[in-house]
Write a structure and sequence with these properties.
The longest helix has 21 residues. A hairpin with a 2-residue loop joins strand 1 and strand 2. The chain is mostly helical.
């Protein structure tokens, strides 16, 4: 594939940008990438993984950042190692284990954006994890049961109750 900019050299860098749900792909050579100011991995002026992560760490929900928020963010500092939140967002790593606790209030939105959730669920082995999966299903059904009772949907609640009893009998038999 030839470079989409100069149509002379082979395209060695392939970029995909997604902005507001619109996906744009472009393929360019290293020379054109330097001219455009795009980072080239592995070069002195390229980007590092820390630069990439620091862009994610600056995430603030739209409209929530004001001058007071900016001041408190700059003053947020780890009591143990002295690292500020601004330094952390530029480096992309903590200075010590206490930083995780100190910057905890700022991390949940980052985790939600990067991972899609703030709770780690983990994986369960298929062969040996049947009981764990059934227990998780029972927990979910109990939450649903309480919700149905609060909403006074007693017929649905009775069906969920019966399903819970059935699953609990199956666990006892194993």
């Amino acid at each position: 594939m030839l470079c989409q900019e100069c149509d002379k050299k082979p395209a060695t860098l392939h970029f995909t940008k997604i902005v507001n749900g619109e996906k744009t792909e472009f393929h360019i050579c290293e020379a054109c990438a330097r001219e455009r100011g795009e980072g080239i991995p592995g070069t002195a002026n390229g980007f590092s993984i820390h630069s990439l992560l620091s862009g994610l760490l600056d995430f603030e929900p739209a409209g929530s950042m004001n001058t007071l928020g900016a001041k408190s963010q700059q003053q947020l500092r780890c009591e143990h190692c002295g690292l500020t939140y601004t330094q952390f967002s530029k480096m992309g790593r903590f200075g010590c284990s206490n930083c995780y606790i100190q910057f905890g209030s700022k991390l949940d939105p980052i985790f939600k954006r990067v991972h899609g959730n703030t709770t780690h669920v983990g994986k369960i082995p298929k062969r040996t994890g049947v009981q764990i999966q059934v227990k998780r299903e029972i927990e979910q059904l109990r939450r649903d049961l309480h919700m149905r009772i609060e909403q006074e949907e007693f017929e649905d609640a009775a069906q969920i109750r019966d399903r819970i009893r059935e699953l609990e009998r199956n666990i006892a038999d194993v």
